[in-house]
Amino acid sequence: MTEARELAADLASKATGGGPDEWRIGATELESLDGRSWLVLDQAARTFTHATGTPASGVRGWLSPNVDESTGFVAAVTSLHVDGRFRERATQVLATKRTSIAFSALAVRLLDHVPQVRAAAWASLKPHLDASTAVVVLDIILSGRGRQHAPQALTDIQEALTADLGSEGVVRAFLASSRRNVRRWAFELGHQWHVLTADQLVDAARRDPDQWLRATCADWLMSIGAPSHIAQLLDANSVEGRLVALTRLPDDQLSDEALRALLTDRAPRVREQARWRAHRRGLDIIGHYRSQLVAPSIAPRVRAACLDGIAVLGDESDLRTCIDHLAHPNARIRAAAVNAILGRATDDDVVRLLGPVLLDVSPRVSAAAARSLARLGAPPSLANEAWASERPANRRAAWRLTRASGGWHRVEADLRAAGDPDTHLSSLGQAGISNWLAVSAATTWDRLSDEQHTRIADALEAADLNAEQVRIVAFHAGIKRRANAPEGTATSAPRAPARRRWLRAIRRR
Q: What are the Cα distances from residue 368, in Å, to 4, 349, 362?
């Protein structure tokens, strides 16, 4: 909204005090706006702030004959004026301008709160409404679909276009629109009017770049498509299409071979649904995964999917296979093996196997090891080597593992991260300290050991925190600040947390 107010003030200045050059520049700026941006600009132009006032208000400069200039820019900006009479006059002038910004400005006024302005805008827009001009108009109306007068405006536009192009013509005209809201509206109309064929829905569900349309068309296909159409979605590019085919196809249309292929799908959601359906059918799921893993050559994606299945359904007999894959050259496979080891081995073996993986060269693998060890409850000391690593990803893994122990370990991890040279890790640590101070500082009562007290004091001195945060963390941790030290510096003399000393004094009284 701040940017919109600045733009509104600039456009108002050009409209009331500029010349042809400024109008052409302003018209170019308006042409670059999408539907939502037009609506935000309209709101900003009439919103009062103490800093900028109301950008489109007053009388001076707004009654000039320049409102009829050829680009339509001045009239378009005048249509944003706070006074309804100015907006109504501007819509009448815009009726003579066949420009994109004129049609956009009139579309915005179809949502106006003043009935006379809405009526004047529709009277000016309706004669020019066709397949080419309706695109920008629909983009604005659909962006404001939740506003009070949007349903009526959308109905009026729809009826006008249908009278001109017919139902099928309206749908065909906007199915390929580059504006997302308009395309979705065209598909909705096509489904509502039974204009879309099953082949069109299959094609959209398989290949459309819009995720919402892929999922929606796949769902619509259930009501009008034959099983042969639904079966075409089993190898669709979209996860939504494959899920619809997997969950809706009758058993006699889904072969065991196709179901086994989906057990190693690239999407975890599809694999989960495939396991459920294969289990219902009585297929040997774990046997399929094991047989795939011993095959001499399978795609890395399939091997990782099989290890993911082992993590869900496997037992101790699969541990050797998982260990062998910890040294695989593919990072995705190593990460899947890390996840599969947890639950297949004893706690001591998991720590022995996954501790060194915290130093893996792949951020994906080291993060997976940190998460698995954290779920196991491994001690923070296991992350010492990772903290000393030169790779930021390994230090992030150490931060995850140390932080998962909670209490003062969480504070220590965030402080160490806040002073890290890696900007990503430093930002994570700063956010963690801010959250701890706001939410958990008052409930962190564990007694600090002498060693951890020293480490926290050193980390606090190196952390990139402001002086106030340093002061409050030092108070909660019972760290004595040096009398002559720079602001934010603390000593590491071991003391009980300050709050505990204060409570003891109260009790003694």
A: 43, 16, 10
Task: Residue 286: name the closest of 259, 262, 318 by CA.
Answer: 318
95-152 residue pLDDT tens: 888 888 889 989 999 998 999 999 999 999 888 888 888 899 999 999 998 899 999 9
Kindly state the DSSP code that residue 265 receives in the 8-state scheme: -
pTM of the full predicted structure?
A: 0.69
- Among left, alpha and beta (phi > 0; psi -120 to 50; other), residue 343 is left
Is the distance from CB of 424 to CB of 396 less than 8 angstroms?
yes
What single letter denotes the amino acid at residue 285? I
Q: According to the 3-state scheme, what is the secondary structure of 124-154? A: HHHHHCCCCCHHHHHHHHHHCCCCCCHHHHH
CB-based contact 257:283 (threshold 8 Å):
no
CA proximity to 340, closest of 361, 354, 330, 355:
354
Contacts of 111 (CB under 8 A, 6+ apart): 39, 118, 140, 141, 144, 147, 148, 149, 150, 153
- Residue 353 and residue 346 in contact, taking contact as beta carbons nearer than 8 Å: no
The CA distance from 403 to 412, in Å, is 8
301 CB-near residues (< 8 Å, 6+ apart): 264, 266, 332
Instruction: Report which residue type is found at 174.
Output: F
282: left (phi over 0), alpha (psi -120 to 50) or beta: left
Instruction: Please classify residue 50 by burial: count the beta carbons closer than 10 Å to its beta carbon, then call 0-12 exposed, 13-18 middle and 19+ buried.
Output: exposed
Whole-angstrom CA distances from 486 to 340, 461, 471, 490, 492 are: 50, 10, 12, 9, 15
Structure confidence by residue, pLDDT tens digits, 472-495? 999 998 887 654 444 444 444 444
Close Cβ partners of 106 (under 8 Å, ≥ 6 residues apart): 79, 91, 94, 95, 121, 124, 125, 137
CA 129 to chain centre: 36
What is the DSSP secondary-structure string of 313-336?
Answer: H--GGGHHHHHHGGG-S-HHHHHH
Would you list the DSSP string of 7-51? HHHHHHHHHHH--HHHHHHHHHHHHT--HHHHHHHHHHHT--BTT
Cross-strand partners of 53: 49
Q: Token match 């068309």: residue?
A: 217
